[in-house]
Amino acid sequence: MNEHVPVRGLRYSYRTDVEIGWGAEVLKCVTRDIGDMGMFIETEDPLWLRAEFTARVKLGEILEIDCIVRRVEPGKGMAVEFKDLPEAEREQIDLFLGKLSRK
Question: Which of 19, 26, 75, 97 could lock onto 6 through a cystine, CB 3.0 to 4.6 A?
């Protein structure tokens, strides 16, 4: 068994564009880090605690992930948790994090 499994709860520094679907609007932001449970999204205008949205983020390929805001850093961004993640997306995220952990 040579496959590298990411450490649960660990965040990896990773910057990529992320689009937040918010009603009819699309907010363009950047990730600061990502882990198996969520990510930090940098934005000057973060949403509020417990706000729910769909994020389009490139993790090898573009994934659409339902998220909920868990922590807000005013003027800096927000920590979000992945919500109701389907098994296929979970596997893609774990595979991507495994690659990040080897860097």
Answer: 97
